[in-house]
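Let's practice the habit of predicting before peeking. Look at the sequence and jot down your guess about where helices and strands might fall. Then scroll down.
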Amino acid sequence: ELERRLSALPWVEHTALSSSLPIWAFGASARFIVQGQPVPRLGQEPLAYAESVTPGYFDAMGLRLEQGRVFTSADTTNAPSVVIINNAMARRVWSGQSPIGKRIGGADPANPEWEEVVGVVNDIRFPANLGRPDTPWQLYRPLAQNPRAFLAIELRTSGPPESVAAALHKAVA
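Done guessing? Here is the structure:
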């Protein structure tokens, strides 16, 4: 409902909700294993920043889809678990192969809860991070499959951002 209201505001071209904003780096990180590859020793699993996002996130953030697809409204809790990854992760984890259709899971090999890679987007930088990030790998999950208690709002506007501030405040209230 909030996304619908925000999308109807004047000047708003793209709307999304996410669990964090890239300016702070991602809100969470996740260790993972790769189906069909050797399982690393406990604690040695690769690390990726993880973000829960709504389908419009990639357009709102200006991210380019480079392979596969973006999330849709069909990616719900009743659908298979899916992820979108960044180029750096795709190049390193599946060197020379397309990651589309491959699966990653949680670090527990006994119960990995596999997620299928459905898309690859360009890498995003973290402007407020003055040091080197813990990992260059980024993964995105549909917010509908991985809900969060706190959300950030992303809007891409065709006019000055301050032109929607009052209407944004009212739509959220």
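How did you do? The radius of gyration is 17 Å.
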